[in-house]
Design a protein that fits this description.
The protein is of the alpha+beta class. It contains twelve helices and 17 strands. Helices cover 40% and strands 14% of the residues.
Length: 555
């Protein structure tokens, strides 16, 4: 019998003369047709997931634009500040300020920082600022002195000392320039510089203005001035010839006047007159009613005042609203086209085996047709689309009786039914509304609905919240994207079990796996039937041969 059975225990039809392998293959092709349909249905579910997620991303992208561009005051209400003389005074404003004018009548003085210049360092002609300190201690007069306890003390905005707890580390392996670099990069709030030609160190505070609370700003001839920068420690005072402000130090040169060649440039506040009121600030850049003003130069009243005009950037607001309309219309078109696509039943989704049998270009064309209409008349998308269209008609509390609907700023729904509810804009009317009342236009999109107005003024389908158009659209989008995510998941869905179509895909794959097991059993049964048929025919042929042999012997 082994001559009619192959190595896989599958018969070759030698007894019957039949092509058993081909017979089984043809039978199994018929048996596999339901599995092909199952695979096609499974693949269609996967394509639906892709289609849903693509639409979900478009809704979310539009939501991001609504949030970042229309509801954020800092973006929509950007301010444009113009100065009559930028070289003397410039300014910029935050979105929270209103539109108003500021007049700088004169700037008596600009704010400047304090600078302390130490005395001439001993033997500075022989001092190498790039060599290690241990080789030059005698040049600095620091032999056998304690290099600890060096501090630079300044004052914060509240007049409190700062730097008391921040000791400057002096390592004799470092050079003078290394230590200066460390000081400049620290939190000391000063900039130190060593001039090799003068043999002196200068220390300038980073902040302009007067912070030391002991300074008497109104004293005559500056007699009431107290230094902004103070020094402690032998390295700074004995070595670099800076004034010694320590209470227990033994260095006799306690003040600038006691140090030969030392000098002090006093800090001063900016003094100026704004809108007729004389005032001062510690910095040349300061906040004035939400406007950041920067003084660049001194000038007298005789030189003419500088006028600052603060107003909403109308061009920017108009551009943002026009871009919103364009993005809204793109979404409306995409969703409407998706739920209106024709579904062609002749182009079922291909199985993996079918794709292998086709050319790549044929597969692409087929897949494009098979995708069409997968979301036709989808209720989630239709509901989301209708919700956005309805919001466009809603009434909003803006704080103005003149602007309560999109139509009040020149935005309305197109009368052309072929445009499927797209918005159209009268740019002249929009710009006029923005220039006349930018706050109301902003609230038209971003209002929180704190005053919801008269319910009778709203359509029956209105949400009745009085919230801004962008806020209401975001609420509608949130409902839509939540439904889409529940239906098809998103990029963050860990498993198919987390969304409806994913569970259907899992169920379809389980059914396919069960069917494939049954197919294997069916194929085994066919082979077993053919095997028994072959065995029976082989036995019959053997018996026939024996009978013929016996009959031949009798003759």
């Amino acid at each position: 019998m082994t001559d009619i059975i192959n190595n896989s225990n599958r018969m070759m039809g030698m007894a019957s003369g039949m092509d058993v392998d081909n017979q089984v293959r043809e039978l199994m092709q018929l048996e596999r047709e339901p599995l092909d349909r199952m695979e096609s249905d499974r693949n269609e579910l996967e394509l639906k997931v892709d289609e849903y997620r693509e639409m979900n991303m478009k809704f979310q992208s539009f939501d991001d634009k609504l949030f970042n561009d229309l509801t954020m005051r800092g973006n929509m209400m950007q301010k444009d500040v113009t100065s009559s003389d930028e070289s003397r005074v410039s300014a910029r404003a935050s979105a929270d300020v209103g539109d108003f004018n500021i007049r700088i009548d004169e700037v008596e003085q600009l704010a400047t920082p304090e600078t302390v210049v130490g005395g001439e360092i001993d033997d500075f002609e022989d001092l190498d600022p790039d060599a290690p300190l241990e080789e030059q201690m005698d040049l600095l007069g620091l032999d056998d002195v304690d290099l600890e306890g060096n501090k630079i003390i300044t004052y914060d905005g509240d007049g409190n000392q700062q730097g008391d707890d921040d000791e400057i580390e002096i390592d004799t392996d470092d050079s003078l320039n290394d230590i200066i670099d460390d000081i400049n990069s620290s939190d000391a709030g000063v900039t130190m510089f060593y001039d090799e030609f003068a043999g002196k160190v200068s220390v300038t505070r980073d902040e302009t203005g007067v912070y030391n609370p002991d300074t008497e700003l109104d004293s005559e001839d500056g007699e009431g001035y107290e230094r902004e920068i103070k020094f402690e420690g032998d390295f700074l005072t004995k070595g670099l010839k800076l004034p010694d402000d320590s209470e227990e130090g033994d260095y006799s040169d306690k003040d600038i006047d006691d140090i030969e060649g030392a000098s002090l440039t006093k800090a001063q506040n900016a003094e100026f007159t704004v809108n007729g009121m004389t005032t001062e600030r510690q910095s040349n850049s300061f906040d004035y009613n939400g406007v950041e003003i920067t003084l660049h130069d001194q000038f007298d009243a005789e030189d003419g005042s500088v006028n600052l005009n603060v107003e909403t950037d109308a061009d920017h607001m108009v551009d943002e609203i026009l871009e919103f309309v364009d993005t809204y219309n793109e979404l409306i078109i995409d969703v409407d086209e998706k739920i209106s696509e024709e579904y062609d039943r002749e182009y079922q989704v291909l199985t993996d085996r079918q794709m292998q049998e086709m050319e790549e270009r044929e597969v692409e064309m087929w897949q494009e047709r098979s995708r069409s209409g997968l979301l036709r008349n989808d209720q989630i998308l239709r509901s989301g689309l209708d919700g956005l269209r309805n919001v466009a008609y809603d009434q909003v509390h803006t704080g103005s009786d003149e602007i309560t609907h999109l139509t009040d700023v020149g935005i309305e729904t197109s009368d052309d039914y072929l445009q499927r509810g797209q918005l159209v804009v009268d740019e002249d009317e929009l710009r006029s509304a923005v220039e006349d009342d930018p706050e109301a236009v902003y609230q038209l999109f971003a209002s929180d609905g704190s005053d919801d107005g008269e319910e009778s003024d709203r359509p029956s389908w209105s949400t009745g919240t009085g919230e801004g158009i962008a806020r209401q659209m975001r609420d509608q989008i949130s409902q839509t994207t939540d439904s889409l995510t529940e239906r098809a998941g998103n990029e963050f869905s860990a498993t198919n079990d987390n969304f409806t179509l994913g569970r259907e895909i899992n169920q379809a794959e389980d059914q396919m796996a069960n069917f494939e097991r049954r197919l294997q059993q069916t194929e085994d049964r066919y082979w077993d039937q053919f095997r028994r048929m072959e065995q029976a025919m082989a036995e019959a042929q053997q018996q026939s041969q024996q009978m013929m042999s016996q009959m031949g012997g009798m003759m």
